[in-house]
Amino acid sequence: MSKINLEILAYDDSPLGPLCLRRRELLSKPGTFVTEVTLNHEFLMSSLYTDSESELARIAIEMSVGEHLKVLVGGLGLGYTAYQALRSPRVAKVEVVDLLPQVIQWLKDGLVPLSQELNAEPRLDVQQGDVYARLAGTPDRLFDAILIDVDHSPDERLGEENASFYSVDGLRAAKEHLAPNGLLAVWSYAESSPFADALRQVFDHVRVEPVTYDNQLIDERLTDWLFFAKR
After folding, report:
1. Cα separations in angstroms, 117 against 87, 99, 111, 113
2. Checking phi first, is residue 176 left (phi over 0); if not, alpha (psi -120 to 50) or beta?
3. What is the pTM of this model?
4. What DSSP assignment string belongs to 11-57?
5. Which of 80, 169, 180, 202 could form a disulfide bond with 53, CB atoms 3.0-4.6 angstroms apart?
6. What's the rounded Cα separation, in Å, for the pair 150 and 187?
7. 3-state DSSP helix/strand/coil percent for the chain, to nearest 5?
8. How far apart are CA 8 and CA 6, in angstroms?
9. How many C-beta atoms lie closer than 10 Å to residue 141's C-beta?
10. pLDDT per residue as tens digits for the range 76-98
């Protein structure tokens, strides 16, 4: 670790802008190290607060029916959503799709906190691709749960081409990728009533779950929002 408590683990250009993986020691908590991702010079995610990412998978698996579940995760990030899904013995397979090959390489190179656990997991399959394009197309297999953690929110997206997924037509297309009784789960940093309304037009049961936590870095209590829709 450098004298300024910051180490750049990886830095590369991406279709969405400069992508950086960094690790730093918290000045407010000496001895506490966090891994962070910035995209286009804006903060994207951190290993310090991962409650809502984990809850996305935990609640989705809890709401799912049966054994030998097949799960699709859109967005690898630092791996916390996939890891939480794999903690369930009811899950037979987790397939992760991430748009950025650099993010996938971080995992392979052991640069993210959960690399060792995820790289040793035989039920995990990580692929490069556009999960939104996949869900808009004809399904080649069905999933018991589809977990989406890509954009900041339905209204604040990393790319405008993602907007169609959050529409009624986009959700109807995504629904076709779910097995009977399958579940769609979407992470957001903000509440979105229009998205919740669109989900209710397509799915039989919709649940919106806030996850609140204390962000000690900015001394503020924050809430992320999880959307669950069951076929």
Report:
1. 11, 22, 12, 9
2. alpha
3. 0.94
4. EE--TTS-EEEEEEE-TTSTT-EEEEEEETTEEEEESS--HHHHHHH
5. 80
6. 8
7. 30, 35, 35
8. 7
9. 10
10. 999 999 999 999 999 999 999 99
